[in-house]
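Progress report, Aim 2. The chain analyzed during this reporting quarter is listed below.
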Amino acid sequence: MQAGISLDQVMANEVGNLTRFLSLELTCDANRQSSGCDSGYSCAYQYNISWKSPTAPMTPENNPRLVFERLFGAGEHGQRQVNAQQCMMSRRSVLDFVMDDARSLSRKLDSGDREKLDQYLSGVRDVESRIQQAEQFGPNVDPNRKTPEGIPDSHADYVQVMYDMMLLAFKTDSTRVCTFVLGHNGDNRSFSEIGINEGHHDLSHHQNNEDRVGKVAAIDRWYVEQFAKFLERRDATEGMTATRCYTIPGSSMAVGMRTVIAIRTTTSRFYWRAVVVGCFSLDGL
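Predicted structure tokens for the chain:
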């Protein structure tokens, strides 16, 4: 099975050269790229919505602290530019070593193993191109705010801090394309914060049970409320009005008890899952 290049990466190919990062991929899920998930397919298809090519997913980051440090560098305000530069130099040294070692190894491999090595090295070259992309923009931005401590205990706080990371990336023009997975389509999270202890995925197979449908509707409302908070902050940010930022919520299915690919925003059974955002905040873009 293969996927196609995703919408965000089509956008990134057009405008990614204008910013330090071509795109940003976020998630509130764990990262799983191997072994079997739904229906026996690789977990890569369930946990990634961003695909650079039919065989290369863009793995999202789920830790807000690591997102912040990737964007702006580690440490306190005033230290991050130096730390980011040192980190970049260290990564380049590691990449140089890996590429030299790989070239030496390639001469000893047969054609089949050499093809596998080339697939691995394509990922290494992608990291190298990201470093080159960042280097051409000079020192990174250093926002005057505290680095997030990590993943919050509250899921609502977790979702909002990841939305904040997206907003901060756009505000500093670090990137203009971002995807955010709130939960994969088999996510069975419970929502005790709104009084729902059953798993979301289990409830979606509701068989038209009124109580279960009501709980799914309450979960959908919770997700929409989190999204609305992000839109309010986005529209309050200079240069990021709705006419300059295209925000697309999405879902893998409308009704969990059926196998369909659809979005039904007019019903209470919309299985909310992901957000794609493109912000083109500079004149002429």
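The longest helix spans residues 80-106. The two ends are 36 Å apart (CA to CA). These observations will guide the mutagenesis work planned for the next reporting period.
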